Amino acid sequence: MLIVQKYGGTSVGDLDKIQNVADKVSKTKNANNSVVVVVSAMSGETNKLISYAHHFSKNPQKREFDLLVSSGERVTASLLAIALGQMGHKTVALTGRQAGIYTDDVHTSARINKIDRTKIESHLSENKIVIVAGFQGITSSGDISTLGRGGSDLTAVAIAGAIEANLCEIYTDVDGIYTTDPRIEPKARKIEKISYEEMLELASLGAKVLQNRSVELAKKLNINLVTRNSFNNNEGTLITKEDNIMEKPLVSGIALDKDQARVTLRGVKDEPGIAAKIFTTLSDKNINVDMIIQNIGHDGTTNLGFTVVQKDISKTKKIIKKLHPSEVMEFDDKIVKVSVVGVGMKSHSGVASQAFSALSNKKINIQMISTSEIKISMVISQKWGEKAVKALHKAYKLDK
Amino acid sequence: MLIVQKYGGTSVGDLDKIQNVADKVSKTKNANNSVVVVVSAMSGETNKLISYAHHFSKNPQKREFDLLVSSGERVTASLLAIALGQMGHKTVALTGRQAGIYTDDVHTSARINKIDRTKIESHLSENKIVIVAGFQGITSSGDISTLGRGGSDLTAVAIAGAIEANLCEIYTDVDGIYTTDPRIEPKARKIEKISYEEMLELASLGAKVLQNRSVELAKKLNINLVTRNSFNNNEGTLITKEDNIMEKPLVSGIALDKDQARVTLRGVKDEPGIAAKIFTTLSDKNINVDMIIQNIGHDGTTNLGFTVVQKDISKTKKIIKKLHPSEVMEFDDKIVKVSVVGVGMKSHSGVASQAFSALSNKKINIQMISTSEIKISMVISQKWGEKAVKALHKAYKLDK
After folding, report:
1. The whole model's pTM is what?
2. Mean predicted lDDT score pLDDT of chain B
3. Looking at the complex, does the CB of residue B273 fall below 8 Å from at least one CB of chain A?
């Protein structure tokens, strides 16, 4: 098999952990696989460099900032190559440039434009383990760019796509994706397989493991992604396309998003353009709106509800009060969003009502509801958040 | 003026020191100069990376080792660019590759083959302060190479040559080159100007400041080198060609080399090829021989003396005993070499006899003597080393 493995910052956090990674890579290679390894910087290193830059300037030049923060991954890549070399493997450590990763010139959050697969493939054909410094590429003018948060995952997925790898394994310090946050519900189980779409909807469950940007790219490139723990040999979670999942679960997981605040506008004049005006203004001010719900009211008015992330609520309040779309405006940051996600919903009815009953049985009042094909999201009072997660986890028998 | 400045590891040892360097560079730029700055890694960083590599392997792959140890200079270059940017300067930080520094492919001790001056010059023409990561270049196959010990000095001198700079300033944490080691003779004075040739002969005095490799390159390229202290504004020492030094001093400095051991072979058969055999064998075993003296003996035999560095003396002893060139062989590692250096010697007689008298007056016995056009070297007992330096320093009135 042709396998791309990516090891995150905690997995290469010190020299002993790098040796542990070398052992894992060695085993994979010895099992008759071709292996490309993408590494992050040793945990803490990149943050240290960022703090150095900010010692000198609040707004460091982005080109120079990229040159600075790209160095941690090069260190890890070299060290891993040296460790594997000592174990008798043929290896080569490559920078983003040497791996043929070409990006646009948006420094600090560049997008990968192209990967020249011939560079990695020529090393693989010489039976080498190819080790690539993650998170970085080069711009058309030959400058070093970085890919932003989760950049090393993105490097791994993009390389897997370019060389048509059979598998892309993302190693972190957790076992995989769980049916819900195990800190809330100790009965949470690790999910064996999940579709890209579900993973995207369950972002908050996987946030520590995998960023949406990487899942989206894996989906686009049709890469089988596995998230695993570098500190044990447990099977991880396979993220793949829906067709590859034989037994489609009704519900795959329950996500709790504590970082939401609710805005409700009652009696908004029901005339064209009013919603557009509100959301365009918010968007212009860089405020991301998550759920949006509109209901018909009475007397030619409508009720409009939406959520924003908590840190934006006071800014949102100011903007909305200025626009003054209605007399009754509520701003509530003491809420959470709980979501039920599962591809099985598409073909099953009654999934939503099961959720509502589960919460109602616990006397939890639902303030807002929004549904998509594979997700039901409910806004409830902050104080009921964990209780709701447990109730839903049990209702859908996710602990079984 | 077009000035290249190089700041060593201690000069950029922490963030405050990098700001100090930024202030110095800023002043130079504001005084209407074009400035290229070459930086080392923050002191300790490169050694840390080397120790990491040796944690995994005694003989790390050299290509990967270079990728690893070249990262410290990139960090410093980026940070200095950010600091200068914050001060309102236009700057650009360049890697060895981006600065157009092409080397051979001898990883860990590469030689600079060529500098593509157009890269640095195009940035200078845009009024930017150009900051270059020292110690590194790229090979013809696009791999990162490093230049070995003193590599950043070499980068600075080579760039100064390529862009035809008026001056190349090497900043460290000492004021310049002294007439002798101030720890031995507190009356030692800083030398204002010194020729390349003298500097090369005084290597041990300048070792902390400047390596011979850089002086040799400066001589070849005819670069005016100045060594200065980054922590004060004192004038440094100008190292230049002899023609630029109007008043040629009889003696410029006194050097003491404590790292020598003496081998004396008495009654060696005086036949062709015997010296060649001895020194070829030593060279094959990577033993560097410094002074070599041969005197006519009697009865068709000769006396042969030479010095090696102390760590090689037991190895040398074994080799020589095996060759057995004579019956009487002495091996003494309790010696030092004291040298008197000055371009004025060329045209003045009596300089050597002055040295012998000075030592004789102090009852210091001279074991070996070797002279060149601008140097007199004497091997004496270890215990007289510092006394001899003081006596010679006084004899040539270097404290005046």
Report:
1. 0.87
2. 93
3. no
